[in-house]
Structure formats: C-alpha cells, structure tokens
Specification:
Oligomer: single chain
Protein name: Acetylornithine deacetylase/succinyl-diaminopimelate desuccinylase family protein
Radius of gyration: 24 Å
Distance between the termini: 7 Å
Strand content: 15-25%
Number of strands: 16
Organism: Pontivivens ytuae
CATH topology of the largest domain: Aminopeptidase
GO molecular function, one term: metal ion binding
Largest sheet: 6 strands, mixed
CATH architecture of the largest domain: 3-Layer(aba) Sandwich
Number of domains: 2
CATH class of the largest domain: Alpha Beta
Order of helices and strands: HHHEEEEEHEHEEEHEEHEEHEHEEH
Pfam family, one: M20_dimer
Low-confidence stretches: none
Mean pLDDT: 97
Structural class: alpha/beta
Keywords: Amino-acid biosynthesis, Cobalt, Hydrolase, Metal-binding, Zinc
Strand order of the largest sheet: 1-2-6-3-7-15
Number of helices: 10
Shape: elongated
C-alpha cells in the first residue's frame, strides 16, 4: 500500500475527526474546553503508540482554575534513532460572531466543505496532520526518528499559554526536535516561511476634569487624542505606506508597514447595559488608544517605537498642556525561514509530487506560533503549511474543503517520508 492510498482510505475518518474537533467549542477568550480536547487527542493518539504528555501552563497569562491552559504533546519513537518532525496545531478558536447560516459548532458537511468555527483555523489542519502521521506509521512501521503531534492553547491570544510555555520548558529544543510544520490555513500549495513583526502599545493622553458646561475650566484629554490621530494621518500613515519589504507577504497590501488603531476609550466609562440614565456632564481627564503596528524584517524595532514617539512629540510642541504616557503591551520580531531549509525543501517537493505544481512561498501579515518556536525555542527550521483559505478564518460560515484536507495530508505524509529518510511507497 502506498502512502497516498493509506490516506485516501482514511477520507471518511478524516471528516469524522475534524467534525469531532469542531464540535468542541474551545473558545478563546476565555479558554473553554481545553482539557476536553486535549484528552480527546490523547485518547486518539495513544493507541498508535504515541507517548502522550498533558501539560498545563501554570502561571501563564490567562491560566486559572476556572480556565486552565492545557496542552497535549504526543511523541512516537521509531525503531532507530533519527530526527524528529513535529506537527503543531492550536486548539483554540475565536468567538463565533454574527451572520452564520449553519451551526458554528455543528461540523456540517455540504458540497465538499466542512463548516464550523475553527474548521479552517485550524482544526482541519490538526486533523490532516494526525491522519498523515497515522497513515505514515501504517506504511512505514520501521521508520527511524520520531514524530510529534501537539495541540496547544491560546494561539489566538498570543500563544503564551501554549507554544511559548512549551518552548520555555524545552519541548522545541533543537536537540529534541529538528523540523516543525504548523498546519495553519494558508492554501494547500503555499509554504509560509514566517511573519511580519508586531508592536502593540497603549497611548494615554491626560487632561483635567471639569463641569461639562464650563469646559474652559478643564482640559479635554479626548481633544488631545484627536490631535494625535490628526498627526498620525498627516505624517505617520503616509510614511508607513512608503516602507516596502522584500518578504513575500500576502496579501499585497501587507507588503508595506501598517498601523491599526485597535481601540479608543475616553471620558466616562460605559455603563452596564441595564443602565437607563444619562451620562454625567464632565470634561474627560484621560483618553487611551491601543495601536497595533506591524513592521517589516527590514525595520528595527527601536526605530519603529521612536517613529511613533516622534508623532507624540510633534503634538506636544504645538499644544501647551499636552501630556501623554506611552506603554508597551506586546512585541514580536519578524521571522522568516530560508527557502533552502530542510523542512521547506521537503514540503516543496511534496507539493510538487502531490499537486503537480510548484510551491508558492509566502509570509503571513500577522504573527502565529512560529515566533515562539524561533525566538524562545531557537529552532529556525519551522514553517506553516496546511489546508484551508486564510481569508475564511474568523469569518461567519467558516469552512475547510475536504479535498484540500486530503491533499494536505498527502503533502504532510510525503514530507515525513523525505525528512525521516524512508523510501516512498
């Protein structure tokens, strides 16, 4: 039996596995159902000879007794020592949102597509990696090396309760693991080499409270924030549009530096929904804005921060009472694996032999868990490859194509053959 035949014979099993995973509402935040899905994966993989560890990220951001951050890591040793290939998938999904025409946790199959929150991002990829590994073990029971499969928490909120925690504990030490494939939904003919950098920060402008009927006795922090935004529109956004990268970032609009205003809050806090009164007449004495700055591998993080601080200083030079604080929230450096890295070449060859096309090399506009494997684990031989269309992630009526899952499983299986040095069937 060839590897392709073993995977095709598991098509219905792949569908059922994906449905089971989608039907577990592992919503993050707050982090529901992590233990349930990790136990499911443990029980699924153990009969195939995987040694399974359940790892709680105690003390990580978000971890609590009510919402513990559970992860599962399964390892299958070969008959002889050799290199290890690790498939890492996150188990969390984002909120459902509005606009669904199907049950978001129903796993409905229709017209060759499997629907549900997380079907595309990335439970379909997780299921495909499991099927690929199980088919590989059937066809090549005497392989050398090791295969690992992990299901990890909190990728959607930074990954600190998942891959970051595991990397700190040595699970991605290059002496233990040599190749990592993250089955994120980036289209079955694409290899994602890495991602842009990110800097999140909070700006607070300060004012003085006063009665709303006499605003001249106060100092409006919201107006100060408005001046900041006006300066951003005047000088910063045009400057960012001029910064271009040689990284193959998709979509095209993300090949420049970008900044998103994530949120603005000023003045009196919003009241509870059942409050029926009017707001009090006050001049707001503070306003806060969270910014999400995505930067390129050609940019220096310190220069990125200085560029934004210069915006604030220009405003300060024009407004006599302007005062502000700038606080770092989160930062990740850009990363990009070389095209001649072993895992890249193995997956590229597998795409060529499976799909009959050359691989398209891309870089993600946003970060994913490769950042922790690279920066904390010091393991650079890492890519993202998996089934699904990235544009469908976090959308209503999210789905993954069944044929795409099967094809991606074949690609993953053939990559295993090359990386673990076995003769293809």
């Amino acid at each position: 039996m060839t590897l392709d035949e073993a995977i095709e014979g598991r098509r219905d099993e792949l569908i059922a596995l994906t449905q089971d995973l989608v039907r577990m509402p592992t919503l993050n935040p707050p982090g529901r159902g992590y233990l349930e899905i990790c136990e499911y994966l443990r029980d699924r993989l153990a009969p195939s000879g995987f040694a399974v560890e359940m790892v709680r990220a105690e003390g990580a951001p978000g971890d609590s007794d009510k919402y513990p951050r559970w992860n599962v890591v399964a390892r299958r040793e070969g008959v002889r020592p050799g290199e290890c290939v690790h498939f890492n998938s996150h188990i969390d999904v984002v909120e459902v949102g509005q606009g669904w025409t199907v049950d978001p946790f129903g796993g409905e199959v229709r017209d060759g597509k499997l629907y549900g929150r997380g079907a595309c991002d990335m439970k379909g990829g997780l299921a495909a990696s499991i099927i690929a590994a199980e088919a590989f073990l059937e066809v090549h029971p005497d392989f050398a090396g090791a295969i690992e499969i992990s299901g990890t928490a909190d990728e959607e909120s930074g990954g600190y309760g998942g891959v970051a925690y595991l990397a700190e504990k040595g699970f991605f030490d290059p002496a233990r693991v040599q190749h990592v494939i993250i089955p994120e939904p980036l289209n079955k003919d694409r290899i994602c080499l890495g991602h842009r950098g990110v800097w999140w920060a909070e700006v607070e402008t300060k004012g003085r409270i006063a009665h709303g009927s006499m605003p001249f006795l106060g100092d409006c922090a919201v107006r100060h924030m408005g001046a900041v935004i006006a300066e951003m529109e005047e000088s910063l956004f045009p400057a960012l549009a001029e910064k271009r990268t040689e990284m193959p970032v998709v979509p095209e609009g993300a090949r420049q530096s970008t900044l998103n205003i994530n949120s603005i809050h000023g003045g009196e806090p919003e009241q509870e929904e059942d409050y029926t009164g009017l707001p009090a007449p006050c001049v707001p004495d503070r306003a806060r804005m969270v910014i999400d700055r995505r930067f390129l591998i050609e940019e220096d993080l310190a220069a990125v921060k200085d560029e934004f601080r210069a915006v604030l200083e220009r405003v300060a030079a024009r407004r006599e009472t302007f005062a502000y604080e700038l606080r770092d929230l989160f930062e990740v450096l850009p990363t990009m694996t070389e095209r001649d890295a072993p895992v890249v070449e193995a997956v590229a060859e597998a795409i060529r032999s499976t799909l009959g096309t050359e691989a398209d090399y891309v870089v993600s506009p946003g970060t994913y868990d490769q950042k922790h494997i690279d920066r904390i684990g010091k393991l650079h031989n890492c890519i993202a490859y998996g089934p699904g269309i990235l544009d469908l992630a976090h959308q209503p009526d999210e789905y993954v194509g069944i044929d795409d899952m099967v094809d991606s499983a074949k690609v993953m299986g053939r990559a295993l053959e090359r990386l673990l040095g076995v003769e293809a069937g």
